[in-house]
Specification:
With 182 residues, the protein is an all-alpha fold. The two termini are 26 Å apart. The chain has helices at 2-17, 19-26, 30-65, 78-103, 106-124, 129-132, 136-144, 155-179.
């Protein structure tokens, strides 16, 4: 959520200060500007999230070693879970950029992002199990789970679900940025 909130700020900060007008004057292709912001944000977030995942894994394993239930970093599925976790965080950041471009207000866009990711877990409890797995929060959980369990998508499918959410929010932001003035 922190990276998602920072991603929202990459676009809403320009709208709140009025600098977006200068950006669009310098680069009239507004969709390209938004796509570049999303790509740059994802490129920044991925290595930071991957580093956080590796550090978190190592710290967690040191804690679990006291109970003799730790696993090595080479344990089957652990590296994949760390990488897919970083991809999932990057996609949440792209969703944040899309919401920032769509809503254009920091508080509103961060609230919307929180409702989509965290609120989706709560709302998902009231949905049929087949639908629940397609909620963004559940998809994030599926991407980092080592053992497949009922009600969770496979990690690759979970990343695809998050990519669809990112594409929808960016597509909506593309429409708004190309049809409305800054």
């Amino acid at each position: 959520m922190i990276f998602g909130a920072l991603a929202v700020r990459t676009i809403t900060a320009e709208y709140s200060t009025g600098m977006i007008r200068s950006t669009f004057t310098a680069m009239p292709a507004r969709r390209v500007v938004l796509a570049a912001k999303a790509a740059t944000t994802a490129a920044f977030v991925f290595p930071a999230a991957l580093l956080g995942n590796v550090i978190g894994f190592e710290v967690g394993q040191r804690i679990l070693a006291g109970r003799h239930i730790q696993v090595a970093i080479g344990h089957p599925g652990a590296p994949q879970a760390m990488v897919l976790g970083a991809v999932a965080v990057s996609l949440v950041a792209v969703i944040g950029v899309g919401l920032g471009g769509l809503i254009r207000h920091t508080a509103g866009a961060i609230t919307a992002l929180s409702l989509i990711v965290i609120g989706g877990l709560t709302v998902g409890q009231f949905l049929p199990a087949d639908w629940r797995q397609y909620m963004p929060g559940t998809a994030i959980q599926s991407a980092v789970t080592l053992r497949h369990s009922a009600g969770l998508l496979r990690p690759g499918a979970a990343i695809a679900v998050l990519a669809v959410y990112a594409a929808i929010t960016l597509g909506a932001a593309f429409l708004r940025v190309s049809h409305r003035d800054a």
